[in-house]
User: Fold this.
Amino acid sequence: MSALLHISDTHFGTERATVVEALVRLCHRLQPTLVVLSGDITQRARRHQFAAARALMDRLNRPYLVIPGNHDIALFDLWSRLRHPYGYHLQAFGPTLEPVWQSAQWLVIGVNTTRWWRHKNGELSPGQIERVARLLRTAAPGQRRVVVTHQPMLVIKDADQRNLLRGHALAAARWAEAGADVLLGGHIHLPYMRPLRQALPAIVRDVLVLQAGTAVSQRLRADISNSVNVLHSDDHPLGCRAERWDYRDREDDFVRVEQCTWSMDRPS
Assistant:
């Protein structure tokens, strides 16, 4: 059995030092097969903030997959935003904005949903949707098929409807048909686990949506603590177990607060 540690919205430049240390301890305890960071790595896309994020990933000492969020494109430095919007991200995390990682248990596909001309909203192009569908179809029978975006594919509060990923309905239909099992996202600092059919009942098969809160930032939402997710492969060849871990100040540690088991209904 292996596990993915899913973190998001670290917003380096606003990080809580004690929570960063607790996250390092949690990762060392769990020894995940992969760490997934689903965007908003930095607060203002500055070089030193990306360097701090890379230093954390190095301390976690695990393979990682990282995609950008809207905060990872310079907001006030218009020259950087126009000429090299992802320059510091690529320096810190490698030559691609849409990485793919796989093992015997996992196929994990990163998708860049940011656009330099947008301040906040994310979108998927038809080409991106088809690229992911093609990759999903290449998965081996024993792999759990995971797609990572920054903005959410499903929201649970009316106020977050404006944050839905543009193109999400078409993507959901195509990716479900192609065999996606789990969708990871962030952006709204609100953790939850929901079946995608809750919002899109017409898709051909259900997919688990796993949203992460903010991992280490002080930019907390209402009474939601810092939060990360863990996704375990199950002993059953078509199963997985999702867990939410919240940081508790009293314990100075991340504590498991929610879990669900997901059985994957593969397309015939």
Observations:
- The first helix runs from residue 17 to 30.
